[in-house]
Each structure stands twice: as C-alpha cells, then as structure tokens.
Amino acid sequence: MTSAMQNAQASIHGTGLGLRRSLLGPLTDHPAEAVNFLEVAPENWIGIGGRLGKQFRAVTERRPLVLHGLSLSLGGPTPIDVEFVKQVKAFMGTHGIGIYSEHLSYCSDDGHLYDLMPIPFSEDAVHHVAGRIRQVQEILGQRIAVENVSYYATPGKQMEEIDFINAVIAESDCDLLLDVNNAYVNGHNHGYDALQFIRSLPGERIAYIHVAGHYRESDDLIVDTHGAEVVDPVWQLLDQTYQHFGVIPTLLERDFNIPPLPELLREITHITQLQMKQEHPHVRCA
C-alpha cells in the first residue's frame, strides 16, 4: 500500500454521506459538521466543469472523499477499461482521494446491463475476478476495496458466498467495503446468519462500511433499494459489527427518494451515536 493511500485512509473517520447532485446546494449552504467524509461515483464527476464543477469542488474541498465506482464490472467477460482506470487515477490525484471501491459483481458484457449481476460463486470465478482486480490495482498503484453486493439468484454456485469473498480478497490482495445492509438482505433472502457472515470476514481489510435502507417485498424477499431509512435490525447489525471489529468509518447511502438534508443528518447522527457507544460504553444511544 502506498503512503498516499495510508494517509488518505487515516483521514477517513466517523461518518460519511453519498454525495448526490441534489445535495450539492444544501451541503454548500449548511456546514453539516456531522458528515466527516463524502463518497462519489467517479463516472458521475470525471470531466464535469462549469458551475456544477465549481459547486462540486467547493463541497469536496471541505471534506475527504472516497470513490465508489459503478461501471468497472469486475466479474465481467470483457476486458477492463484501462483508459477509464487511468482517468480514475488522475481524478484521485486531483482531489487527493485515497480510497476507490467497486462492486463485487458485473454490469457489462457487450455494453452496459444497468444492473449489478451476481458473479458465480466458483473457483474459476475467484481466479477471474482476482486477476482483474490485480490489473486495476497495478494501474492505480494501490489496493482497491470490493463491496459485498446484494443478489437474488446464485447461478453456477459451487461455494458459499463468504468463502468466495474471502478467496477473492486473499488472491487479489485487495480491501473490502463492507455493506451491512447487503449482508442483512442476503441473509434474509438466502437463509443465513448475517452476523456470522460479517464476523467471518477479514476485519483488517475493511476500508469502510456502507449502511442503507431497503424495501420488504414480501415475508421472504427484501430488495436492496437505498431508497428508504435504515431499519432497526440493520442498525442492530451495524452495532454488532462495531462490537466485533471496533469502530470503522461508516457511510449512509441514499440513492432514491432522497429526503431533505436534515433528515439524512438524523441518520448520520445515529451512526455517530453507535460509534460513540462502542468507544465510550457509558454513552447511551437514542
């Protein structure tokens, strides 16, 4: 890991918020001191200039950034877009960004599929994905973090999800973006213990955590939407994650039905309270 990466990770702490265009104005007008870092998708901001680019820079100069990609398609069959990865590297240099995460899934073949498709849990897929991650890391000169994704089918399954993820991390020497909500959703939909799943991950590789809301379609199906408030069982799972690994920087995701900033800050405050409860057990969480 480069010293720049270590310094960038050290600057990420506390709570974060996914930056959406609708939040640019509110974050410019409101100090939102509870938000310690922001997450952006490089695909949405690379090359953006003019008034929007100035707004973006004004917001991001106040806080550290992390990148969460949408289009790398780590599990896909087509070659990695090397030119895009080089653009990401330059973007990271311009904005002093040290963490780049992507989904452990694929989203393209001969063109984009506009969805995150599940990678088969198999040894062949481990080798395929790990090789592509190593290629990206060689271009960037640092590790990336891969996110455990929600999935609703398991085509070509030959091993358990936890074994697949751990094998990819070990073979590629990458980091992990732990999505607690995805663990909860998958545990419910596929009948496994989400907490045991989380405890079986390599805690020393967790770069940061995602937490988000979801939609309960039926008693046996939850859909990961990022379009609602975080529910109590997911808050509890986050608290248990802190109890096991210690406090890790945690980001609130909200992609749809985005409420006014004060409502998001209420959830951010709840993350802060859970972190404080772990670090200072005498503090009571509201």
Give a structural overview:
The chain has helices spanning 3-11, 24-29, 42-45, 50-60, 82-95, 123-140, 161-172, 180-190, 194-199, 232-245, 261-279; strands at 15-18, 37-40, 65-68, 100-103, 106-109, 111-117, 145-147, 175-179, 206-211, 214-218, 221-224, 250-252. Helix 6 (123-140) packs parallel to helix 7 (161-172). The chain has 286 residues and is of the alpha/beta class. The chain is globular. The protein has one domain (3-279): Divalent-metal-dependent TIM barrel enzymes (TIM Barrel, Alpha-Beta Barrel), CATH 3.20.20.150. The protein contains 11 helices and 12 strands. The strands form 3 sheets. It has an 8-stranded parallel barrel. It has a two-stranded antiparallel sheet with strand order 5-6.
Question: In a nutshell, what does this entry contain?
Answer:
The chain is built from eleven helices and twelve strands. The protein has 286 residues and is of the alpha/beta class. The strands form three sheets. An eight-stranded parallel β-barrel has the order 1-2-3-4-7-8-9-12. A two-stranded antiparallel ribbon has the order 5-6. The chain has a two-stranded antiparallel ribbon with strand order 10-11.
